[in-house]
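Task: complex structure prediction.
Instruction: return structure tokens for all chains below.
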Amino acid sequence: EVQLAESGGGLVQPGGSLRLSCVTSGFTLATYWMTWVRQAPGKGLEWVANVKQDASEKYYVDSVRGRFTISRDNAKNSLYLQMNSLRAEDTAVYYCARARVRVIGVPYWYFDLWGRGILVAVSS
Amino acid sequence: SYVLTQPPSVSVAPGQTARVTCGGNNIGRKSVHWYQQKPGQAPVLVVYDDSDRPSGIPERFSGSNSGNTATLTISRVEAGDEADYYCQVWDSSSDLCIFGGGTTLTVL
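Output:
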């Protein structure tokens, strides 16, 4: 079965760090771009970061650039999000998702497979 | 940065047609994707690349995109279609993924 499973969330104080993991199964991780998307309580979806198949390219939303790092270990079928200098506004459910990318013609990036999500709460 | 505008809510009676719009500057030149999210669940892709449907998504779900508006159309609406719907594009000028604010579909 094709699936994604996040872990590593929880309650952390402002300024603290947390590392999210996403274990994949049922497909070859090395052939896909991957992404993290978050959703603050009662709010909409916000894209956080993308990483290319070989990790040679990474993109981040401005609000997390310099604080968050996306990475992957294809041999372990895993995606990661290292989150440092956490702020209250980072409180959200974080989803890992598989990306489909087209770079020629009209470019697109969409997410065809999602994990269940993991809650990160930043509070003192 | 690029902005996608969705109406906060849309209401429709069962069996009728619901249309959820997504506005953006020259969005017709971009590829638009739509996600359905039910309470407490992860999003599910329902339309990609303006009008294509992933396997397993009913034909009742369709999409179109032209000018400054993309539209998700749900025909013969059912109670189970109640959910939040989000449009999404990739803004290649900024290398950013953009989501619309979401639309809550209520089945009366």
